[in-house]
Amino acid sequence: MEASRGTVLLIDDDPFFRRILSDAFIEGGFTVFTAGDGLEGVRLFPEIQPDAVISDLIMPGQGGVSTCREISRLAGDRDPVIVLLTSMFHDPPREYGEPEMGARFHISKSTKPLDIVVIVEQLLDRARYRQPTG
Fold first, then answer.
1. Closest to 59 measured CA to CA, from 119, 113, 18
2. Domain residue ranges in the chain
3. Which of the residues in the chain have pLDDT under 70?
């Protein structure tokens, strides 16, 4: 069995989208955990310590902004890749110097699932490259 390329926590209230994106990450060699809302995602985060968190922006209860901010706080110095998915815009993926609405990376939900996997792979590779060795 091949080693996992990383662990992803996928938070979205849409079960269909969650399944499609989860399947794309699994096919890409990732270990995937899912949460159906922000509160569940925040609860799972400390248990699984994922390399990347992907959260929908608009969810009932605790939305994506609060979810990403709380996960960032819980992460402390770990600094996982946090991505906010939104259907509110259809622009290309965007990276911010400082977290905007709780995440440095924003991706439109209209982006193909495989493309989201590739973007997250690149972000994780870049994060690993930046980590100090020894």
1. 18
2. 7-127
3. 1-3, 131-134
**What is the structure's pLDDT at 3?**
67
Are residues 28 and 117 in contact, defined by beta-carbon separation less than 8 angstroms?
Answer: yes
**Three-class DSSP category at 123:** helix
DSSP secondary structure, 21-58, as one string: HHHHHHHTT-EEEEESSHHHHHHHHHHH--SEEEEES-
Cα distance between residue 36 and residue 14, in whole Å: 7
Q: CATH topology for 7-127?
A: Rossmann fold (3.40.50)
Task: Output the pLDDT for position 131.
Answer: 62
Q: What is the sign of the dihedral through the CA atoms of 5, 21, 52 and 93?
A: positive
Determine the Cα–Cα distance for residues 28 and 64; give it in Å rounded to an integer.
24
Provide the edge-to-edge strand list for the sheet that holds 81-86.
Answer: 31-35, 7-11, 52-56, 81-86, 103-108, 94-100
Judged on CB neighbours under 10 Å (0-12, 13-18, 19+), 54 is buried
CA distance 65 to 6: 23
Prediction pTM value:
0.90
Per-residue pLDDT at 129: 77
